């Protein structure tokens, strides 16, 4: 009887540790912005910023304005009991922001839309679009120099009532778009 009681106690402790650490749920970390929240819900925004390679493959001439269509996809990943909380939060809006992080001095870069309003929809991947306008100045290097534009995307934490408890963790994404100059 004593052995059976110890065995049950050991199994119960093991189950509690697994639930508290959520180690049975592996989540891919495609970007540098992923942070585990812990405990049961483990809700985390995830965002990717992509564009068609054809739009930056052709060299850019000084004075030309190149349009690069950006596709921003986002979703929410969750832990064991996250589905329940996501159903409760369904339809709630949240802000998503894009900005230009860095670029060469001889280039101007501007986004057509920088601020978006996303809506929580459980188990769905959603898209928003923006256009990046790139223009080279007259003093840009013309010898097929590699240029870049760094784009920064952020989805802030979603807080609960009274802004005390974080319900969904924030996410940051940094991508670098490369292009080539031409005479």
Count the E strands: 10
Instruction: Assess the beta-strand content as a share of residues.
Output: 35-45%
Inertia-based shape: elongated
Distance N to C terminus? 86 Å
- CATH secondary-structure class: Mainly Beta
Structural class: alpha+beta
Largest sheet, spatial ordering of strands: 1-2-6-4
Describe the oligomeric state of these chains in a short phrase: single chain
The H/E string reads HEHEHEEEEEEEE
**How many structural domains can be distinguished in the coordinates?**
1
CATH architecture: Sandwich
Q: What does the average pLDDT come to?
A: 83
For the biggest sheet, the summary is:
4 strands, antiparallel
Q: How many helical stretches?
A: 3
Roughly what percent helix? Answer: 10-25%
Any idea of the CATH topology?
Answer: Immunoglobulin-like
Cα-atom Rg, whole angstroms? 23 Å
CATH superfamily: Immunoglobulins
Query: In terms of per-residue confidence, which ranges show pLDDT below 50 for 5 or more consecutive residues?
Result: 19-39
Walk me through the topology.
Layout lengths: L1 H20 L22 E8 L2 H4 L7 E13 L4 H8 L3 E10 L4 E5 L3 E5 L6 E11 L9 E10 L2 E2 L6 E3 L2 E10 L3
Antiparallel strand pairs: 1-2, 2-6, 3-5, 3-7, 4-6, 7-10, 8-9
Please characterize this protein's 3D structure:
- With 183 residues, this protein is of the alpha+beta class.
- It starts with a helix and ends with a strand.
- Strands 1-2-6-4 form a four-stranded antiparallel sheet, with no helix packed on it. The chain has a four-stranded antiparallel sheet with strand order 5-3-7-10, with no helix packed on it. It has a two-stranded antiparallel sheet with strand order 8-9.
- The chain has three helices and ten strands, in the order H-E-H-E-H-E-E-E-E-E-E-E-E.
- The chain has one domain: Immunoglobulins (Immunoglobulin-like, Sandwich), CATH 2.60.40.10.
- 17% of the residues lie in helices and 42% in strands.
- The radius of gyration is 23 Å and the shape is elongated.
